[in-house]
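Many introductory courses stop at the sequence. We go one step further.
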Amino acid sequence: MASTQLPIARRTEPPGFVLPPVVRWRLSPVPSKSARMVAAAAGRLQATGYQGLAEVTCEFHEGVLTLHGRVPTFYLKQVAQTVVRALEDVTKIVNRIEVFAPPD
C-alpha cells in the first residue's frame, strides 16, 4: 500500500513581520475562606490605629479565630479581641496574645 503525503502548508510572512506574543490568561485563585477571614481580622486590627496591634497575627480554622502576638498592655489585648469579635463566621476567639512590659 502506497502512502501519500499531504503537502505541508507553510506560512510566509512579509519581511519584518513579527507575530505578537501569546497572551496567557491566568485566573487568580479565589482566596480560601480562611485567608479571607485572616485578612479581614488583620484589616480590623490595623484600622484601630494602635501601633501595638500591628504585630498581632491571626489564624482561622472551622470558625475559630486564634490571635497570636505580643502587646504592651492588657487593654490592647482586649481591644484586639473586641475588634475581631464581630466578624461573620467567627464562632469562637482564642486569644493567645501575650502582654509584656516594654523596656524603659
